[in-house]
Design goal:
Ferritin; 156 residues; single chain
Length: 156
Amino acid sequence: MADELTIYFVMQKAIEKEIEAQDMYRDLSQRVVEQAAKDMFITLRGVEKKHEELLRQYQAGALGGGALKAEHVVDYKIAEYLEAPAIKPEMTLAEVLLLAANREKASYELYMALAREHAPGEIKDLFEDLASQEIGHKQRVEEVYTEVAFPQTSGG
């Protein structure tokens, strides 16, 4: 029973985190000036909403164990080397993506730290699954960042 309550508590906190991210991205979409940045914040809000729905399905038992685990991802490590930019109305699309990558990195690190604090079992697996989701999100945001920040030239 205690494990179930603890897993429920963890899932509730993860869901709350996704809702907070949705609210933040909505607010930022209303504050930035550049249309591409506005559009990216709206897209990121939608992604966080999908994460919330996935977590709710997992919490309700609609998904099997390990359903949150992402496939192997290529980590560009952009967020490890570039700090999150300051939030300002003039944010560019590249800055929005860098901010999002750093948020995903922080979430990944949080879940991995929590996983390390638990003995092998269902709770540790849950934290590792949540971390896996976050690193996958980071990879996707960083992939788009590389396309925006380092556009392909006509010379190849």
